[in-house]
Amino acid sequence: MAAPLTLVLVLAVTVRAVLFRSSLAELISERVEVVSPLSAWKRVVEGLALLDLGVSPYSGDVFHETPLIIYLFHFVVDYAEIVFMVTDGITAVALYLAVQNYNRNVFRKQKYALEANRYPPDCLELMRSPKEMFYIPLKVATFYLLNPFTILSCVAKSTCGLNNAVIALFILSTIKGSALLSAIFLALATYQSVYPLTLFAPALLFLLQRLYIPVNPCRSSFWLFTLQYGFMFVGSLLVIICLSFFLLGSWDFIPSVYGFILSVPDLTPNIGLFWYFFAEMFEHFRFFFICVFQINVFFYTIPLSIKLKEHPVFLIFMQIAIISIFKSYPTVGDIALYMAFLPAWSHLYRFLRNIFLVSCVLLACSALFPVLWHLWIYAGSANSNFYYAITLLFNVGQILLVSDYFYAYLRREHHLTQGLYLRRKDGSEATLVLK
Amino acid sequence: MGLLSDPNRRKALTTLLTRLNTPICVVCYLAGIAWFMGLAFEPFTLRTYMSENAMGSTMVEERFPAGERALATGREFAGHKRKAGGMPVDWLVKTMQDRGLEVFTQSFSRTLPFPDENKERYMVRGINVYGILRAPRAPRTEALVLSAPCSPDNSNNQAVGLLLGLAQYFRNQIYWAKDIIFLVNEHDLIGMQAWLEGYHHTNISGMDYTPLQGRAGSIQAALSLELSSDVITSLDLILEGLNGQLPNLDLANLFHAFCQKIGVMCTIQGKLQRSDWDTAEGYTHAVQTMMLMVLKQASGRPWGDHGLFLRYHIEAATVRGVNSFRQYKTDTTTVGRLLEGMFRKLNNLLERLHQSYFFYLMPSLSRFVSIGYYMPAFGLLATILLLRALDLWVQLGTPTEVTEDGVGEVEPPSSPGVLSVLTPVVISHLTGVALYTLPVLSQETAVEHFPVSETEAVVLTAIAIYTAGLALPHNTHRFISGEGTEQGWRVLKLVALLYLAVLLGCTALINFSLGFILAITLVPVAACVTPHLPKAVSALAMVLLSPGCTILYCVFIFQELQEAPVSLSEGWMLFLSVISQGILDHSLFGSLVYPLLALLVYPCWLLLWNILFWK
């Protein structure tokens, strides 16, 4: 399996290298869909210039990346293109290994359950075969590497690629069962962009499941492990933040990075939901609605964790998708990360209901973004409402996609316990309705 | 959300849509065409009204007296032009300086990719002369432009004369709050392009020009004047700019309002407005006017010198004097007064024109159709593509088709290899790239080997590649994946349908007319094509509805609407020149129609062609 993966990697690197050399690279790095005020390479360069001059990079209102990133690029700025390509490669390989491992676990569990006769007899066609599962890791890696969104993001040198790599490594170390590494990568991801904090719950659930500790608040072993993991996470977060402080010599970065993410002062249009809303809003409602909008990302963790506590990996997928939809400065690079997981749920395909509609919507919106941007900014004949309408539609499409997968997953689980052919009490055929 | 989550209702809807697919598509197509034709019917259109407050309510007086003197200046200009054999730069500079303007010149040169046979030019070299009247009343941060082209033949002298006359008159007025730039540009659009790029410090078309020595503020609006006779019968307003962009409707309203105030006959597309909208003739007249606008907009060319201003967010229009055989004549003084009035109103603007519509069609100068009214016509056509795609998706065996909402699905159909779909897509696009790049690149080779001129070489190469594309790709998938399968063409058609829908949708947003015209011809092809049709007949139909033939029909219809019908051979020659003009417009001004057709629409049509010959 290594050969096809290498082939995909080579192909991906070639495409990126060609694009880096073409005149398109500059155009792409200006697109608001691809870079956000947080992740724009232009801003990183500005921060580096300030750092070289001995000024705090956060003294202007331009640079909003974390200190670790700027010190990373302080050393490798000449090889930035290679760094971004390698980062994408690492993400893909991490996702590949993670999904491979996860699938092995899933298959083993299914085998035990089959041997224990735990599935209803008519569910055989829902069983997953090794043949079908064999190519999934490769498909996941391909989906990530050759996704136009990832390619655009990489060519624009958006630092979003680095965040994706950290999250992918976090997923890999979690699935491999290494609590310490998982906590460290989670802390790194949280340090980068705050929102991955919500991934704490699925990671904890996964590790608990792996150690056969039941999720039961009355048991001391549950609390012991939770505290242990929480301590590792908080500890490494503290270490990273203190490291940043010592590197920079000031706490400037806290308001400039986290304040910037949470209070959304930059209303440059992007594919998210924040900019238009807050541009239109009266100033004295701002704080209230900031809270309402930000809570969206964190709030869904609780019900989803309760509902999906047996399926933490799917929960990770859901959480990443929710983050990329509701975060304050989303870019297409964030979307690419959760889209990479879609092949892993290809067995849910038969239960998906709106996949055609959703893919049409996402496709059309992706094409319409630049068109409406052109009409608004260059031709001057359209206005921001046109662009926001497409943004809204794009996000509705994403939400439908995610909820469709959620429904399909639950539905499959339901069939696995209740049997594929449901009967009403009077013996007639029943259909499942989500209301 | 009941429709999306309730399987029974979904099933009912899907069954309805798939069973009634063909009738719904036919109805949609006819409704789309009928809706479009209805747009010209006067009760369905809106009367134009002035939205901009700063121009609507203020009063101005027009007192320009010196029409005769302007004509004399025009004659003098003509004499010097003849003597200099081109733009009489020194005379113009001196005359403008005499009138109290700050005068500057800009020289430019440009080599066309191949000779332009319509205007007989290849290596273009010229000089723009412009004078700036500094605003006495305001801090000179904004400007207006009045331009007149200096054409090589004996036309347009009166326009330059009037421009100089207005400059002299404006100089003596004290109410100007915006700088006024009087520009005489050589080689029409090429000179205008050089001047605009110089003014805005951009260089998008690779032109050589000297930088501008004097600048005024940011340009708010521009008028281009074309006048070739001492008296005129009517003034024609030209709005269509590069890539089908239109100026704000308020500019047209302003022109119309002043024509009515001063009593000048005004036309749009050269068509006078008729009052008998309820008769068949009146309606036909409105349709003709609107169709002319649609065709001009679809061509993506700048139809007057104003066309390039629009790219820089500058509202601009061309006013062209027409001298026909009508009795009622208007002298130059009146035209001067009209322009004075328009400039005084524009001078009152507090911000750029933005209140009124940017997307509109005009069946007459006092009536317009806004985007909300004309988009449904396109929407109905685009719906057909989506309905067909849905139908195919259901046929391809998705959960929607399954009787029990996902449960009890039979064997999932073996999906066709990615390769069998990807190959035609890639090959079609490579053909498109060849069509885009080869004609200009290979002109020298073609001239060496065939007895044709460069221009003919370019056009004929384009047509040859276009035709060769028909033969090339439809066999390829067989070499790669063996005999084409039922599933294979369905997947390919699904891809082509969605591709076409997105493509046409984006085109229609930027340039409605182009999107609509392409939709009229391509949608039936895309909706109907399958490999099971009789080959010869359907191949003929497809070729007749291909993008190239659409251009040919448009040429004939355009000539017909302009009341200058042409014979078949003349039409063919016009068609060839239209293609060469399209390629030239792309390389000179960055018009997008040629790359759009070559790189996207043509490959998309080739995909459909591929489906026809799938087996």
Can you describe this structure?
The complex is a heterodimer of chains A (435) and B (615). With 435 residues, chain A is mainly α. Chain A has one domain (2-358). Helix content of chain A is 69%, strand content 0%. Chain A contains 20 helices and no strands. Chain A has helices at 2-21, 24-30, 41-52, 67-76, 80-115, 130-134, 136-145, 148-155, 160-176, 179-193, 200-210, 220-248, 253-263, 274-280, 286-299, 301-307, 312-326, 332-339, 355-379, 384-418. In chain A, helix 8 crosses helix 18 (332-339), helix 11 (200-210) packs antiparallel against helix 17 and helix 17 packs antiparallel against helix 18 (332-339). Chain B is α/β, with parallel strands linked by helices. Chain B has two domains: 11-41 and 373-398 and 418-613, no CATH class; 64-271 and 302-362, Zn peptidases (Aminopeptidase), CATH 3.40.630. Helices cover 54% and strands 14% of the residues of chain B. Chain B has 22 helices and twelve strands. Chain B has helices spanning 2-5, 7-19, 21-38, 53-56, 67-84, 89-98, 157-171, 188-199, 249-262, 280-299, 332-347, 371-395, 418-441, 443-449, 454-471, 476-481, 486-510, 512-528, 535-544, 547-561, 568-589, 593-612; strands at 46-47, 102-116, 121-133, 142-150, 179-186, 208-209, 218-226, 234-238, 265-268, 315-322, 360-364, 367-370. In chain B, the strands form two sheets. Chain B has a nine-stranded mixed β-sheet with strand order 6-2-3-5-4-7-10-8-9, with helices on both faces. A three-stranded antiparallel β-sheet of chain B has the order 1-12-11. The longest helix of chain B is centred in the middle third of the chain and has 25 residues, at 371-395. Chain B is globular. The two termini of chain B are 42 Å apart. The interface between A and B is large, with 35 and 38 residues. Chain A: It comes from Astyanax mexicanus. Chain A: It is found in: Endoplasmic reticulum membrane. Chain A: Keywords: Endoplasmic reticulum, GPI-anchor biosynthesis, Membrane, Signal, Transmembrane, Transmembrane helix.
